[in-house]
Write a structure and sequence with these properties.
The structure is a homodimer of 368-residue chains. With 368 residues, chain A is of the alpha/beta class. Chain A has helices at 22-33, 45-53, 75-88, 102-110, 155-167, 177-200, 207-210, 215-221, 228-237, 239-261, 268-284, 307-319, 349-358, and strands spanning 15-18, 38-41, 68-71, 93-96, 118-123, 144-148, 171-174, 297-304, 326-330, 337-344, 362-367. Chain A is built from 13 helices and 11 strands. In chain A, the strands form 2 sheets. In chain A, strands 2-1-3-4-5-6-7 form a 7-stranded mixed β-sheet, sandwiched between helices. Chain A has a 4-stranded antiparallel β-sheet with strand order 9-10-8-11. In chain A, α1 links the parallel β1 (15-18) and β2. The interface between A and B is large, with 117 and 117 residues.
Chain lengths: 368, 368
C-alpha cells in the first residue's frame, strides 16, 4: 500500500466534540490518545477549560474545518445543537451520543435539517459520576456503540461512525432508531424506573430496617442514585417504549400481589413459583462474562495465601511486560490458597497464561 | 479471674447444627475454627458428610448433650425441626436462622413447644450459591445478626445467642419478630420481587436488545437468579408485610405510567421528577461504606502506574505482617498514576497506614 492510504480504522480529524461532559470529554481523551486532532467546545467556559486541561482536545479556531462532529449534550438539547452544527459546518458529518434516537431524528426532520450528513449513535457506556472530571479514555472499550443510520444515509458515512467507535475501542452495533429505543427502554430505562420505585420505599423507612440492608438492596437500588434532571429528559423522550415495559411489569406485579394475598387459592403457589422461575430465565439471557460488555480478558491464578506470593505473581506479570488492568483476590481467611483474578487486554491473555504456567503458576481459568 | 471463668464472648459447646447447607455449614466452620465442639446433623447423609469433610464439625453421638442448637433448615421446615430438637434435648437452648421470624414462632406456639428455650434469630448473610460447598467461616463477619427474642425469654438466654453471633464475627441486633419481618420485607423480599419482575421482561426479548445490556441491568436483576423454591417459601411466610411494600410500589408505578402517558398534562413532568428525586433520597439512606455491612477497613494508596510499583507495595504490606483481605486497582490506561484500594481487618488499618507513610507511600484515603 502507498503511504497516502489512510489507516482503515483511524478516524480522520479534526473531530469537533460539542459538549464537554462525561461522554464528550471521554471521546476527546480517547481520540487524542490516538493522535487525532480533537476540537472541544462547550457552552460553559469552565467546563471547556477543564476538559482541555484534562487533555480532551484543543480550543476551536476560526479556520477549523472538522470532518466529523460529535454532539454530546443533554438529550433535550441534542436536536437543536445537531441542527446548528450541520449549518455551521456544511461539509461535516454529524453524530450525537444521546440515550434516545427516535426523538432527535424526528425533530431534525421537522426543522428540515440536512439529514444526509446526520447519523444518530449511542455508546452504551457511562459512569455513576458525570462531568469531564470523570472522563476516561477507556470508557468505551468493549462497550456496544449503537449506530442508528436512517434510510437517507450512504454506507460510506455509516462507516465513518463505525471507525469512530472502533478507534475508541467500542463494538459498533447497527440498528434502527426504533429498534434502539425499544431495546434501551428494556435494558436501561425500565431498570432505572424499577430501581427508583424500590428506592423510594426507603425514604420513610425506620432506621432499624435500613440497618439490615445487604448487597441485594444495594445492587437493585444503585442506579436510583442517578441524576433526576437527566432522567426526566430520557424517560420523557422514550415514553412510548418505556410504558410498554412498565405495563407488563404492572400486570405481573398484580399477579404477584394477588398470589401472595390469597395463598390458599387454587394455583396461587404455582403462579408465585412461575413468576420467580421466569426471573431466573430472564437473568440467564443477559450476556455474561463472555458477553461483549467485558473490556478485558480474565485470568484466574491460584496463589498461596501469603502476601509474598501475590507480590511475586505481580512482579512476574510485570517482567512479562503485560499491563494488569484490574486485580481481584478471593480467599477465605484461614484457607491455604486464594485466587487472583487478573484483567488484561484480550490480546495479552494467551501469552501471559503461557509465561505464568512456565514459571509454575497454576491457572484456575482464563476467559475472554 | 479463676481459670474456671468462661471466656465472656465464647460460646459454650457442644453446639449442635441441624441442616448442613450454606448457613449451617458456615456456622459450623466458624465455631470449629474457634475450637468449639460442633455437632453437625443433616437429613441427607451426602450433605452431612460433605459438611464434615469441609471441617464444619463432627457426627452426632448418642451421648451428646448440646448446650445450644442452631436449626438451619429451609423456612417451611423450621418450626417442625425446632420443635423436634426442643423435645429431643430438654436442656438445650434452640435458635433458628430462617429469613422470617413471625411464622416459626406462631407455629411453635400453636404446637405447644417449650418457648422458654427457643429464640429465633436471622443472620443477614448469604451468597449467590448455596450448599456446604459454598460455606465460609467468615460468612457472618461484620453482618447484622437479628435476635428476635419473644416476651417469654430470660435475658441470660438472649445473651447466649448474642455470644454466638459475636463468636462468628457478626453484629447482634435485637428486634421483635414483627419488626424483623417488616424490615426484611422492605430491604430483602421486596427487592427480590422487583428484581424478578424486571428480569421476567427479558425472557422473551430480542437477542439484539439484550446485547445492549450494561451494568445497570446486571445489578438490578442479579438477585432474580436466586432459587425459586426457597423464595416461594420466604415470600409465602412473609406475605403480609411484602404486600404492603408492593402495593406502595404499584401506586407509584401507576403515577409513573400516568405521567409518562400524558406528558403535556399539568404537573406531569414535576411528578416524574419527584419520583426520580424520591429514589435519590431513598438510596441516600442505605448505610454505605461506613455501615456495619463492611467487614474490612479500606486503605487507598496512590501507586505509580507500573506493575513493579504495585508488587513493591504488596511486598511491603507483607513485610509489615498485615494480611490483605482484598485489593482493587483503579487507573485509567495512559494515566501516570493509579489507586490501589486495600482491604484489611479494621484493627490493622491504623498501623498499616503508619508503616506505608513511613516508607513514602501517599495515602489517598483510609476508611473504617
Amino acid at each position: 500500500m502507498s503511504e497516502s492510504t489512510p489507516d482503515p480504522v483511524r478516524t480522520i480529524g479534526p473531530v469537533r466534540v460539542v459538549g464537554a461532559g462525561l461522554l464528550g470529554a471521554s471521546v476527546g481523551l480517547g481520540l487524542s490518545a490516538k493522535g487525532i486532532d480533537v476540537i472541544v467546545h462547550d457552552a460553559s467556559p469552565t467546563a471547556l477549560s477543564l476538559a482541555i486541561d484534562y487533555g480532551a482536545g484543543r480550543k476551536a479556531r476560526d479556520t477549523d474545518d472538522p470532518a466529523l462532529i460529535v454532539v454530546a449534550v443533554p438529550p433535550d438539547l441534542t436536536a437543536e445543537v445537531v441542527a446548528q452544527e450541520l449549518k455551521a459546518f456544511p461539509d461535516a458529518l454529524v453524530t450525537d451520543v444521546a440515550s434516545v434516537k427516535v426523538a432527535p431524528l424526528s425533530e431534525l426532520s421537522l426543522v428540515g435539517a440536512d439529514l444526509s450528513r446526520y447519523i444518530g449513535s449511542h455508546p452504551m457506556a457511562g459512569r455513576e459520576r458525570g462531568g469531564a472530571i470523570s472522563a476516561r479514555a477507556d470508557l468505551f472499550i468493549g462497550r456496544p456503540w449503537v449506530i442508528a443510520a436512517h434510510a437517507g444515509i450512504p454506507p460510506t458515512q455509516t462507516a465513518v461512525i463505525e471507525r469512530l467507535a472502533l478507534d475508541l475501542g467500542a463494538v459498533p452495533v447497527r440498528m434502527s432508531a426504533e429498534e434502539h429505543d425499544r431495546a434501551v427502554a428494556l435494558v436501561s430505562h425500565a431498570p432505572q424506573a424499577v430501581s427508583t420505585l424500590l428506592a423510594r420505599r426507603l425514604a420513610d423507612a425506620p432506621e432499624s430496617s435500613l440497618s439490615l440492608a445487604g448487597q441485594g438492596l444495594r445492587d437493585t437500588t444503585r442506579i436510583a442514585a442517578s441524576d433526576p434532571a437527566l432522567w426526566v429528559q430520557i424517560m420523557g423522550a422514550n415514553s412510548t417504549y418505556i410504558i410498554e415495559v412498565l405495563r407488563d411489569i404492572r400486570t405481573d406485579l398484580d399477579v404477584l400481589i394477588h398470589s401472595l394475598s390469597d395463598q390458599e387459592a387454587n394455583g396461587a403457589r404455582r403462579s408465585l413459583a412461575q413468576i420467580l422461575a421466569g426471573g431466573n430465565n430472564g437473568v440467564a439471557r443477559i450476556p455474561g462474562k463472555h458477553g461483549i460488555d467485558r473490556r478485558f480478558a480474565q485470568i484466574v491464578v491460584k496463589v498461596d495465601d501469603s502476601p509474598g506470593e501475590l507480590a511475586r505473581l505481580l512482579t512476574e506479570i510485570g517482567e512479562a511486560g503485560v499491563n494488569m488492568e484490574d486485580l481481584r483476590i478471593e480467599h477465605s481467611p484461614g484457607a491455604d490458597i486464594g485466587l487472583a483474578e487478573i484483567a488484561v487486554l484480550p490480546e495479552a491473555e494467551e501469552r501471559l497464561v503461557g509465561v505464568l504456567e512456565e514459571r509454575g503458576w497454576k491457572i484456575a481459568g482464563a476467559y475472554l
